[in-house]
Amino acid sequence: MSIVLTSPLAATVCIQTLPVLSVMSQILLERRFATTSCQTGGKTAVPFHMRPTIPLVRQRTLGIGAQSLRMPTFGQLRPLAASAAEPALACPHDPDQLPHLPDPRPRPAVDTGINVQKYVQENYTPYSGDATFLAGPTEQTKKLWSDLERLLCTELEKGVLDVDPSKPSTITAFGPGYIDKDLEQVVGLQTDKPLKRAIKPLGGVNMVKAALESYGFKPDEEVDKIYSTVRKTHNSGVFDAYTDEMRAARKSGILTGLPDGYGRGRIIGDYRRVALYGIDALIAAKKTDVKHNLLGVMDEEKIRLREEVQEQIRALGELKEMAKSYGFDLGRPAQNSREAVQWLYFGYLGAVKEQDGAAMSLGRIDAFLDTYFERDLAAGTITEAEVQELVDHFVMKLRIVRQLRTPEYNALFAGDPTWVTCVLGGTDANGKPMVTKTSFRMLNTLYNLGPAPEPNLTVLWNENLPQAFKDFCSKVSLDTSSIQYESDQLMSRLFGSDYSIACCVSAMRVGKDMQYFGARANLPKLLLYTLNQGRDEVSGAQVGPKFAPVRNKDAPLDFEEVRAKLEDGMEWLASLYANTMNVIHYMHDKYDYERLQMALHDTFVRRLLAFGISGLSVVTDSLSAIKYAKVTPVYNEQGLMVDFIVDGSFPKYGNDDDRVDALAEWITSTFSKQLSKQHTYRNSIPTLSVLTITSNVVYGKKTGSTPDGRKKGEPFAPGANPLHGRDAHGALSSLNSVAKLPYSSCLDGISNTFSLIPQVLGKGGEAERAANLSSILDGYFVNGGHHINVNVLNRAMLMDAVEHPDKYPNLTIRVSGYAVHFARLTREQQLEVIARTFHETMLFEEGRRTIATTKLELNLDKFVTATNKFVATTNKRLKGLEDWQGVEDQNLEKEVTKAVKAYLIRSGFTDVRGVPNKKIIGPDGNILIEFDGLLAANKDEELFLVTVEAKHKVTTGLWLLGGLCVHTAAAAALFR
């Protein structure tokens, strides 16, 4: 017997062995079938995330009779599809439906020969083994890290350990600096002392003054004079060019976090080039471009680029000079492992000396460095302990990168982050895993040195990665909450095999793409502007255009009217946002150009213009409330909507309900389309992210009450997360909702922060929990998810850490796209983190109260081969269920119910109840299946189990429909 769903509902078929009680180990088989379709070339195609040919994400087998089934371990179930009146879910994750990302770069007349990707592809050694080869910290590492930890504790107490207010930082401004020269295997500091910060006034001298004063340092008068009267800064240029509308939008908070007073960041220099080629060859390559590839008609772009390349050449010369002060000759390529790490680090160090970008990411280095390590290990010139020591000391340096920030910046980007993002794993151009031993070594630093936010270790997850590596990553997440995961399956199709992540979730090809960072727009405030005729709901100021008033002021809001008004608002905001970004990045290129980072790119780069949105879940739930409940505005004396009365319930984003999830998809795709219509600076390609960092708290403060019931000043949810506490149907339902957001509309990334208590992943020990987390990650990414932070923590521990920070000096948590030391957050930010949903079950928490009494009516119309193999085994003996043997067909309903109930009680399940006389109706009105069943829960692990017996008109036998329902929809759809 087999099934396919043709109605708006979805079905799940699960097989399970009842004796096993941990969550993911009971998940044996799920298939989702639906008729929701996308039009492709005139043909109707089943969306990728709904196809029955789901890649197998976990190589486990279940023996049933004489057969073994290979199965995925994550459901692809959806509850109700959108009705005809609702926005339909697109096909966001079909690889055939992902957009083509254009590459407008001209082809150079002369090839410079720079090709790191080719070198890595031809020389790296894949590793599919486990972590047993790893080495612990050496005595030198322990001593060095102990010295640094003392300095870090002092820094935490003071806020800033030290600053030089008189010397603007450049690549060569400071002489050599050391932690302990005799111990360090990798040398080089931003200034002359560890954790001492430098000023970078090219971004804005007023920002430097504000930052210095906030930490008790006196600004230098000479520096102030030079950068106020002699040398213009990025910040001054931007505000000279801003329009009144731009200034008003910035002040009101509808455009926030803009890089108009600090370094924009999000540019990843290909620091591998320093090690592979040496500075002399890189300078020669740039001179080749000037001499041969930047000729012809001298238009503005070519003139500018010729000047920029000359600045790049100067920066490379300064990098060589800086390294020479430490006793190294970067002119030549690195010859061995030690030089490879040192050369690469010097490249990065030069960048963070020169720039204070909001995200100074590191790139993709694990397979590259591994080529040197493997060669030297094979030659016997280095040991595994020495390799790990090099990696540990390299990571120490990355952990102490610092920039001087203003209080306003710290409120938006809490915890003093630098986003030294370093990706691990992924696949190569042939789809082969790029996991190497150095991928493990980088993760091992979280044990040798302890948990830490930096570097921002990011695993490029692919279902084809070696299982041992996936389980080790999961173990690290369980132990440290320090790493994030992103979908290699999505990104590699657009960015190839040599891409990395800037900041949190922004993919780009290393050395070939750069990004213009643009923070984010406040969409809940935009919604309120469209309802208040363009006036700000907090100040009353006329910020936006005078949108038409609602048609009936005293009636509940009309969904179609509000949605149309929001779309008009998006058109206005997209234009304003793009123009503002054009001003910012023109001035940044003019006054604060990233000379060294761009020197480590191809001369001709593809430029991405990164827009962002905040408050997605608030707007989504607001539209849902207006559509499914009655939302009546409350006006103040100025006629502004300042609150809303919500009468009735409505589906909320985060519960795997297509009725509301489709609205989130509509919001992102509509705003993305509006952005794509805009003129962009230097022909950059607009992309969109759903990411807030920790600024969801600040954005909420600036925003009034919203139609979903959120009150004025309350925080938004971070990134693409559901609003706190609204994803009440279990962890996997929450993941499913976020996974529906289309990456095709959000190519700058979709951030999801996922927190759960350890017990959810089972009680069978560390290995089982790690394997179960790997299964969840496999399923989430196969299901179309783009990014996930994983926190496995107890809320009580975080509450204790608020009151007793000294007990948790290294407590690290993932927030929105990065990690942070919990103690570095403000109390307000700490409490907001604690208020987020901490999933205590993988399932529907309300299941026991509702499932057994809900009507079941699934429409089935035909059989498919996928489940026929299972049906052939239904009369076979099921392992562990001796009571099922010998049951007569005519007595199945009564006998099966009695036997299974007795078995469940013996197995430790409680609250076992019957689910009587359910029917599955075919499209012709005939009854296809009748059954009795049982619903049971294990209170310790909050498991919900549905077991039913079914009679089919062709095959009569024992059939388990549902099995362990691993998320809300699996139970709710079966018993709707």
TrEMBL record:
Q: CDD domains this protein is in?
A: PFL1
Where does the Glycine radical domain start and stop, copy by copy? 718-842
| Positions of the PFL domain | 79-711
> Would you indicate the residue range of the signal peptide?
none
Keyword Acyltransferase belongs to the record: yes
Cell compartment(s), UniProt:
Cytoplasm
Superkingdom of the organism of origin: Eukaryota
- InterPro entries given in the database record: Auton_GlycylRad_Cofactor (IPR050244), Form_AcTrfase (IPR005949), Form_AcTrfase_GR_CS (IPR019777), Gly_radical (IPR001150), PFL_dom (IPR004184)
Alphabetized, the UniProt keywords read:
Acyltransferase, Carbohydrate metabolism, Cytoplasm, Organic radical, Transferase
Span list, region Disordered = 702-723
Q: Name one GO cellular component term.
A: cytosol
Q: What is its EC number?
A: 2.3.1.54
| Enzyme class, UniProt record, top EC level | transferase
**Primary location:** cytoplasm
List-wise, which residues carry Glycine radical?
817
Whether Cytoplasm counts among this entry's keywords is: yes
One GO term of the biological process aspect:
carbohydrate metabolic process
Family, similarity comment: Belongs to the glycyl radical enzyme (GRE) family. PFL subfamily.
Q: What is this protein called?
A: formate C-acetyltransferase
Organism source for this protein?
A: Volvox africanus
